[in-house]
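Budget justification note: compute hours in this period were largely spent on complex prediction jobs such as the one shown. Inputs:
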Amino acid sequence: MTRWLDDREQAAWRGYLRMQARLQAELHRRLQAESGLSIADFDVLVALTDRPDERVRVLELASSLEWEKSRLSHHLARMQRRGLITREECDDDGRGNFVVLTDAGRSAIERAAPGHVESVRELVFDALTDEDVDALARISTAVGARLDGTRPGGTRPGATR
Amino acid sequence: MTRWLDDREQAAWRGYLRMQARLQAELHRRLQAESGLSIADFDVLVALTDRPDERVRVLELASSLEWEKSRLSHHLARMQRRGLITREECDDDGRGNFVVLTDAGRSAIERAAPGHVESVRELVFDALTDEDVDALARISTAVGARLDGTRPGGTRPGATR
DNA sequence: CCAACATAGGTGATGCGTCAACTATTCCGA
DNA sequence: TCGGAATAGTTGACGCATCACCTATGTTGG
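Corresponding output:
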C-alpha cells in the first residue's frame, strides 16, 4: 500500500534535508555572530523597512510574514525588550496596535543586511549554475503548489490516508 | 561592495525559503497529528531501528544525526519520559550510556513511518519530474560542498567579510 | 602512582514556535 | 440599543535548540 521512496528519491530527499538543516543553521549562526540578530528578527525588520512609514498593524505583519499571530506576538515582545521595535496604539481601532521600527532597529538591519546577503551568495548562489537557480525556483513553485492543495495551516490536515 | 541578489536570484531565494518553511511545518503537523511524534522523534527512532540491536551510544547517535550532544541529551530525556526509549549503562566505559529502543518506541515508529513517507511522496515527489529530482540532488550536493568549506558548526565562522 | 588532560554525557538558562485559552474591542442584526 | 458573533492581539504552558558550564570517568606521561 505504501509507496516507499526508491533509492534515487531517498538519496535526493536525505540530501535535501541535510543541506537544508545545515544551511539554515549556518546562516543563523553567521547572522547572529555578526549582528546579534536572529533570522526571525531579520525577517521582521525587513518587513518593517519595506513599509513607507516603517509601521504596520500586527496582524498585517503576521500575514505578510505568513506567521501565526501568536508567534509574532511573542517575537515582538522579545524584540521590544531589546529596543528594536515599539508599539503604538491605533486611533481607528481600539483593539489594534502598530508595530513601529525604532532607530536602533533601523540601524541594526542596515548593519546586518550586507553580511547576510553575502552569506547567501557565498553559500548558495556561488555554488549554483543558472540552470540550477531556475531548477530551484521551479521545484519550489511545484512543491508550493502541492502545499496550497492541503489545508493551509490552520486546522488539522485530517488524514491523507 | 556587497554583491546583492538580482531579481531572478531574489525570486528563487524567496521561493525556496517560503517552500522550505511551509513544507517543514506541514510535514511536522501531519506526523504529529497522525502519530504524536515530532520530526526529531522520528529521526531518532529511525536511527535506532537502523542498528541491528536497536541500541547506540549517545555520542555515536549524536554524530550520526549530526546533532549537538546537548540537544540530543535534552531530547532523549523527553523521549524517555514518554517511554519511547530507555538508557542502559555501558560495561566497557563507566561514562558511557546506551540508548535503547523500547517496544513502545518500535511500535510508534512502525505506525508512523508509512504515513510520513506518503506525505513526503505526496507533497514533494509527486510534484517533481525526474529531472527535478536530479536537480534537487545536485543543488543539495553543491550547497553542501560550500558548507563543508566553512567552519562546520563548532566555533564562530570568523567573519566572511 | 598520580596529576593533567580528554572524553561521555548531563544541566540550566534563554530564545524560539505552537496550541489553546483569554481579554478587549468592534460589528451587526433584531 | 443591546446582545451575540467576529476581530485584534496577548498569555501561559510546553516542546525544541543552543550556549556555557558541570560532573564523572578514563587515559597518559613523568
